[in-house]
């Protein structure tokens, strides 16, 4: 018996019915409300623009004075230098101009990501396009990045450009996009391991040149402070409830005081365990990948697996950072729906729900004064579970695609042998003598 979803007209009705309210709500929250309020996003002003002002006045943007205690969270600039350096032209612009520029860049970044990613995975029909676009704009971290004025949507656009070059082979411009993204923020640094594993030497060169160029152009005199003083603090992680990484989970388990930020530092034991988990995730990911794929479809799944592993490798992953998971989510959904692999679809759906609505539910309870700490502590791990679900879906998809490719290769080899046998029967070799 055929499912109603097998009918194109029924799928069209569902998509159109869902697209109208989702698109309207997205436009209302990320365009209309910010422009109507006229208020600049807090992170943009408190962190990025404050650091840009310090650079413009010839001061250290990291504010590393003896009286200042650097932490992962809080109103301090802990991002690499290029972001604040590039924002200096906006210092003398009006608040309205700054807001319009920020909204335009972030919205354009999402558009660039969608265009490049859909091209990379080979989406051609309008129904698949609409579905994946809706999944993206309804993903909570997208709106959260616009609410806070975060740079992560720019990184998302660069990751889409990198994905397009990755599935096409060894493209230097894809490496340049990756290098620029890592120079802006270190979140995508693990992808360098994938580039090395895939022996994409032109891509690696493009990444190195672009990344180093940005770091050497953007007030390099402050670069040692970032590398020697800021980066070690970032690598130590935090147990704050907003940290959606295994490192955050471990820190919260070993020292419950880190959950609400009462205790800022993570214990040495938590750092060691976090490092071991990161290594285990890397080993498991590359064990499944085994060897570089020869086909573009499988290459997209390789990229999805490595990007999905990123938040599990990092010592801290804020909710806004998780917008980068849209890359594996869209790649995997397109692959799984075409093959009716509902387990992969279900894992992606679970990750989407836990990271978005699930975490929102937790925040609502926390702000409202809900006092059951056991429930809150458990709900704080929704994000980590969601990330793990997406990563598991990626590894499962890679394994199943590799099995399918081996079966196809065996079938083609068998067909070639059969064709050769028939040729010998039709044209037997004459005996001599």
Q: How would you summarize what this structure contains?
A:
The protein is mainly α. It is 71% helix and 0% strand.
Can you put this structure into words, describing what you see?
The chain has 433 residues and is mainly alpha-helical. The chain contains 18 helices and no strands. It is globular. The model has no long low-confidence stretch (mean pLDDT 90).
The low-confidence parts are: none
What integer is the average pLDDT?
90
Q: Helical stretch count?
A: 18
Oligomer: single chain
DSSP E strands, number: 0
Query: How many structural domains?
Result: 2
Overall 3D form = globular
SSE pattern: HHHHHHHHHHHHHHHHHH
Helical fraction: over 70%
Give keywords.
single chain; 433 residues; mainly alpha; 2 domains; 18 helices
Secondary structure elements and pairings:
Blueprint: H1 8-37, H2 42-56, H3 81-86, H4 95-121, H5 126-137, H6 140-148, H7 152-168, H8 172-184, H9 191-197, H10 201-217, H11 223-236, H12 246-254, H13 268-289, H14 296-313, H15 326-339, H16 342-367, H17 373-379, H18 382-426
Helix pairs in contact: 1-4, 1-5, 4-7, 4-15, 5-15, 7-8, 7-14, 8-10, 12-13, 13-14, 14-15, 14-18, 15-16, 15-18, 16-18
